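Can anyone check this?
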Amino acid sequence: MASPYKRILLKISGESLAEQGQFGISPSELAVIAAEIAAAKQSATFDLAVVVGGGNIIRGAKLAAAGKFDQSTADYMGMLGTVINGLALKEALAAVGVESRVMSAILLPSVAESFIRPRALRHFEKGRVVILTAGTGNPYFTTDTCASLRAIELNADVLLKATKVDGVYTADPRKDPSARRYESLTFGEAVEKQLGVMDLTALTMCMEHKLPLIVFDYKVPGNITRAVRGEPIGTLVRA
C-alpha cells in the first residue's frame, strides 16, 4: 500500500540503540530497530531518511557543562558518536535486506558519504534509506535541529520522532500520574507550555515550514509501520 507521505524523516535517539540505562550499542536493540524499519518499508511505498543521535556514545553538552571541554570540541565529539551509530544501523539494515547509505555533515570520506542534497535525492530514487549523521556539522545544534533541518531540506512530508513515551504529555507521566497525553497540539502551544517536545530551534523550524511532527513510542512493535501508514498514533504537533 502507499503511505500518505511521499517522504518521511525518522529521528531516533542514540539511547534507543543501548540497553536501558546503559551506554554503547546493544546488538539486540539495534536488531529490533532495524527490523521495525524493514517492516515499515515493506508495508508501504515512501522515501525514508533517518537521523540518529549519539547520546549512547557521548553527550557533548554534559562534558561542556562539567567545564572539562570547550563546548565546540564536545559537540564535535558528539557528532562523531552519531556517525558510529549510523554505521551500526547501516549494517543492521543490510542484515534484514534493506539497502542504505550513511551520509555525514562533516568530512569522513573513509566511512561515509558527505551530505549533498542531490546525492541524497538520488539514493531515494534508488529505494535506499538515507542515514544522516554528524548533526548539522556545526556545534551548538542538537540532533533534533538536524532532523528538522534535513526534513525541510529534503522536502519530507512529516517528521517522526521515535521516543520511549507514547506521545507528548501535560507533565512527565513518570512523575505525575495525572499527566494527560495530547492527541494533537500546535507548535505554538508546545512552545508556550514548554512541553519539551524538541528544542526551540527545531520546533520553530517545523512551525515556520508547516512540517508536521509525530511523537510516538518506538518500543511498541509495529508502531513505526503504523506511523508511516498514517494511522493515529502518539501525538501530532502541527502548525
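Reply from J.R.: I decoded it. Strands lie at 2-12, 45-52, 100-104, 113-114, 129-133, 158-163, 184-186, 213-217, 235-238.
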